[in-house]
Amino acid sequence: MTTTPSSSPSFPAPPADEGFCEPAFGEEIDAEATLSPVAPLPPGSWLAVLGGGQLGLMFCQAAQRLGYRVAAIDPDPAAPIAAVADKLWTTSYQDDDALQAISELAQAATIEFENVPYMALAYLAAHMPMRPAADSVSIAQNRIQEKMFFARCALPVAPFVTLRDGNDLLSSIPKALFPGRLKTARLGYDGKGQCAVATFEQLGDAFRQLGNVLCVLEKQLKLAREISVLIARDAQGNIAVWPIAENIHRDGILDVTIVPARISKAIAQSACDYARRVVEGMGYRGVLCIEFFIDTQDNLFLNEMAPRPHNSGHHTIESCVTSQFEQQARIIADLPLGDPSQKTPAVMLNLLGDLWFPESNSTTPREPDWNALLADSNAHLHLYGKKEARRGRKMGHITICAATLDEALHTARRLRKALHLPDANAL
Ligand code: AIR
């Protein structure tokens, strides 16, 4: 579904977080504010991306298919994007020389990982259109700002409290928040930076385990399902929403995505409305993913958002007219938004490093047997080319497309068994 702009509500700035040196919301350097409407960047132009993990790799491939060249910065010499980028600086995101060089080369910029330093985002934003804008990224970098932003948009979030330091552990924390989950305010992804806290007594240990850093304690809801809405908004305010994805996590890491989600029309409508309010409230430009909880009473809560393409949107490469990565390139290049409609139902299976260690005590990685998978032309294998397989590390994914969702689920169960992935029958 694509739509044209509607009037945007404006929301007051969330207060800046103590202890972090960031401009307050709305004060970022926005080169776009001074730009008049621009023509699309012609093929051959350079697009910059900060970060070169799997999301950068797939962005790069999509941008190149549209005819663009891609320049990236990533500190890791073995970053997946290294295999495909037209130019890569293997250096810190705060390397002034690299930032200067990339901003002289590229005409527009984006990110593939929100945990890049604000300074790098602001630097690029001062030189070229940066989508998403640095202030949107900064909200999504911090769970507290994110939750406060959702609350300011009058959107539902699970009950939570902020824990700044050990003193906050002594103050009265509502009993109703237990059992809960303690999550670091910053730098958490793929299940990192969070742990379950069953009782108040466990809180001190959990806080220390996470490094005595700024955290939120969130009430653990009784979940029926988790879903995500992938939404894109361009510089003119046009919006495109992909079909809603249903997500199954294992150990805090996305395991399976099923699209379309098996939810009621009413829930789907509310989730899309909420997502629209978020992007309009932020004046967001780019691809954004919002994760939601649905509890056993059918209440919908916003969990968190990612200011970039998302793992639950990988299926769009094969199952939708326009993939999330192509949309990201379209938005930064000022091309019209692509059609997000789904061509076929899809099931996406993540391939974690665990698959390379078939025995629980093995320490030497072994290449999985891909034969069953490769024999099925409805199953699309993506390997990210990461040099080192580690347990819990995202090494690749499989997207299964079929005429019906039942058929896609059936194939997913079969391939899960063939690959010895756990819980094949839980799908
Ligand atoms: N990523 C970003 N946020 C969440 C995830 N999973 C992707 C980005 C990033 C990569 O994961 O593409 O660059 C980092 O993966 P790893 O395995 O090196 O930690």
What are its keywords?
single chain, 427 residues, alpha+beta, Rossmann fold, Dna Ligase, domain 1, D-amino Acid Aminotransferase, Chain A, domain 1, 3 domains, ten-stranded antiparallel sheet, four-stranded parallel sheet, 12 helices, binds 5-aminoimidazole ribonucleotide
What does this structure look like?
By secondary structure, the chain is an alpha+beta fold. The protein has three domains: 46-140, Rossmann fold, CATH 3.40.50.20; 159-219, Dna Ligase, domain 1; 223-418, ATP-grasp fold, B domain (D-amino Acid Aminotransferase, Chain A, domain 1, 2-Layer Sandwich), CATH 3.30.470. 26% of the residues lie in helices and 24% in strands. The protein has helices at residues 54-65, 96-105, 118-127, 134-140, 143-152, 166-170, 203-209, 265-282, 316-319, 324-332, 371-374, 405-419, and strands spanning 2-3, 46-50, 69-73, 87-89, 108-111, 160-163, 180-184, 194-197, 215-219, 223-233, 239-241, 245-250, 253-259, 286-295, 300-306, 346-352, 379-383, 394-401. Strands 1, 10, 11, 12, 13, 14, 15, 16, 17 and 18 form a ten-stranded antiparallel beta sheet that branches. A four-stranded parallel beta sheet has the order 4-3-2-5, with helices on both faces. Helix 1 packs across helix 10 (324-332) and helix 2 packs parallel to helix 3 (118-127). The longest helix is centred in the middle third of the chain and has 18 residues, at 265-282. It is globular, with a radius of gyration of 21 Å. The two termini are 27 Å apart. The model is unreliable at 6-31 (pLDDT under 50). It binds 5-aminoimidazole ribonucleotide. Residues 51, 53-56, 112-113, 189-190, 393-394 line the site of 5-aminoimidazole ribonucleotide (AIR).
